[in-house]
Known about the structure:
Residues 26-227 form the Nudix hydrolase domain. This protein is of the alpha+beta class.
Amino acid sequence: MTGIPLPQDLVGRARxxxxxxxxxxxxRDSATVVVLRDGPEVYxxxxxxxxxxxxxxxxxxxxxxxxRDTDQALAWAGPSPAAWGEVFNADERTARGLVCxxxxxxxxxxxxxxxxxDSATVVxxxxxxxxxSDRLALIDRSLSFTDFLDRRGLVLRSDLLxxxxxxxxxxxxxxxxxxxxxVAALPHGQRxxxxxxxxxxxxxxxxxxxxxxxRAGAITLMPPTYHTLRELSAYDSVEAVLAARREIxxxxxxxxxxxxxxxxVTS
Length: 267
């Protein structure tokens, strides 16, 4: 039980929570997607240093569930929300929101759209000005994902996603997320682009390369991202990642005193 040192600015809060003086902030449902291409390589965004959460860290596309993500009118193909709920130990409504958020946030933050005209096809190009206009409207929430798909005659392709992990932000943090991790292959014909917004840089990296850069202090990775990249480095192809059998169990790092120092541990 070694873990990582708890940041000094959270030590006092950890003590207060342990003493029952402070209540942990509720964790918001969110989704993140590891987009993979041949190599295998993963798509990473570096969050701007001005961001309130994970400033300067390299992350996968993702974000919180929008209440409209649970809309039952959403055009859907592939495993049902109920099936996803069984995978992630969530109710059907929550699962619907998680999968929708995964696909929506991936489009918002990378330009990659896991949707198509029907259950057997996928959009091949999302780089035009009209797509960019819709992407920005999704980001500012003036357009719901349901309306976006409906207007374009598209269905969400939940079969293009695979469940990978479930991480919950430690209780000591001021901003907390209950995050389900997905993996997905970059659809044929689509390409990512630098979409700006919360990110100031994007990059494709082999998982093992990203881990080594983090170890050397060249890039910053949050523990769930680091752990996921370490796991992915064991696979030699996108197909192998997608075929991996995963048992999803929630991981909630907790503050534990180890030899006089508070550290975050996962076991």
